[in-house]
Amino acid sequence: MKRYAPYIIVVLLALLPFSGLSTYMMHIIILMIMWSVIGMAWNLLGGYCGQVSFGHAAFFGVGAYTAGILYFKLGISAWWGIPLSVVVLALEALVIGFICLRLRGPFFALATLAMGEVLRVTAENLRDFTQGTLGILIKERTWVEKTWYYYIILAIAVLTYIVVKKIIESKLGYYFVAIREDQDAAESLGINTTLYKTIALVISAVLTGLAGAFYTNYMGYIDPEVVFALHDISIITIMIVMVGGVATYWGPVVGAGIMVVLAEWIRSLPRIGTAHQTLFGVLLILIIIFLPNGVVGDFSKIKRALGFGRKV
Amino acid sequence: MDAVAIEVFLQTLISGLLLGGLYALIGIGMTLIMGVMKIINLAHGELMMVAMYMAYWLFVLFHIDPYISVFIVAPVMFFFGMAIQRFLINPVLRVESILPENQVILTVGIGMVLANLATLFFTSDYRSTPVKYASDAWYLSDYWRDSPIELSLSVPWTVSFTISVVITVALWFFLTKTDTGKSIRATAQDLEAAMLMGVNVERMRLVTFGLGAALVGAAGCLFIPIYYLYPALGGRFTLIAFVITILGGLGSTVGAIIGGLILGVFESMTATYVGMGWAPVGRFLIFIAALIFLPGGVASLLRSRRLGK
Q1: Is ipTM > 0.85 here?
Q2: Is the dihedral of CA A245, A218, A205, B42 positive or negative?
Q3: In the predicted model, what is the mean pLDDT of residues B149-171?
Q4: Does domain B3-308 have CATH number 1.10.3470?
Q5: Which of B112, B121, B238, B242 to mutate to test the interface with A (most CBs of A within 10 A)?
Q6: Could A277 and B113 be called an inter-chain contact, meaning their C-beta atoms sit closer than 8 Å?
Q7: What residue ranges do the domains of chain B occupy?
Q8: Which one of A151, A155, B43, B255 is separated from B10 by 20 to 30 angstroms, measured CA to CA?
């Protein structure tokens, strides 16, 4: 049963648009899937390889702007941004990796955070190229219906899942975990840590960039404050993985579901809506203290706390 | 170069140095915490924001000059910092998890809560304290009648800079001459050895976090007469503090001072010669350059000099 679970879930998800959900519900589900993609991508680098990035907005934003600039400057459909962003993101990740991967642990984290901020400020100031803070508006929407957007992001998500799973089950995955557990030991065993960290970063960046390019097409409007946002992109990405479960296949998906629903729910509350960051922050603090391995990672702990499962 | 160009250059240099002195104070707080706790406090800028709001309200409600409120705000921040360390960071140090970066992410959470609460209570309006001396300045021509160039020295900037130098010197005395200060340095150098020598490491952590918060709190009070205040300002200063610590060398106090000055000068140079909006990019360029060419920061230069002798 457990072996077939991913296939069953994919089939069920593929049938979802036929169940007659409202447009709003479809929007929420599309967001959830998009965030799971970003979460899975982050998890590959942060969860498995142990390189905690605080700057995934740098990749998301560049992906989004690749699509946006194609449309705005060259007049080509923004959908071409999805294949093109693979190339752009791979190059970007190589440059960022060259600079940041020489740092370890928290210092890597902060260096990536700085990268995200550099790109945001650059996008704000390069007005001729990006329109600065005005942002880029995609005037023609490809579809009014959400169904096709849904299938596209679902395809990206399935692809991401397969890529992550294949990598983690291969030799590469063992290298990643070895680097996470002890970089010096991995190095002394003959693992070229710089090379493998760079591989993890490039794949993670490309997958995040795909989500970014999709975002441009789906939302139809981007500006630097939104796609390079520190809290609303980079930190939320980390939260999704933390809440769901670091270094688990389904953690980011569960986390994305929880966070998107939570965000929508909190924003809809009267008055408390503006406090969503406080509540997110408190949630983050509680998760770190009580469920350090997330909902999926600490599932047995939750079951025990609720009175199910075996008593130890 | 004609006189005007020299004038602009010197004026930029002066304002950069003044700004750098204040940056140094922020950087020292962060570098202390990093040295002792081995974690990066990503709520550092937010702590400064909290301190600035305190100074702001002290000024508005009780008409206490921001320079005097340093003595009120810094102790309050000291206890605030200790409380954060005691009730939030300490429990996480004991939790086992896959990622050791948990503590850093925790400070991000704390920062988010502080910034958002400030927005809720004080709205996101830009505020500033209308002190009387805000636009006063000393002019070179007042003292030297026929000077070929004209330079000015803003009063609040200079006073802030001087106070920050005084605080830094006081801190230096505390760290090198007192028992507690020496214990803090011992903990930073080697945790286990310090423990074996009978240093109460747990308490040193509390004191260090408190001290870091107090320093950045003092910096907040010094910034308030010359800067404006809004809830989202914290994130920006967290980054500045981090850039300074990387520039200066991790955990090095002297490095943080030099790093702060370099950053201040560099930023004001970019603002003058490239454009205001680019100043943050200049900040990160110097950060990236430091990472590539001088990964140990200024501290590593100092050390290699000393070994060379």
Answers
A1: no
A2: negative
A3: 84
A4: yes
A5: B112
A6: yes
A7: 3-308
A8: B255
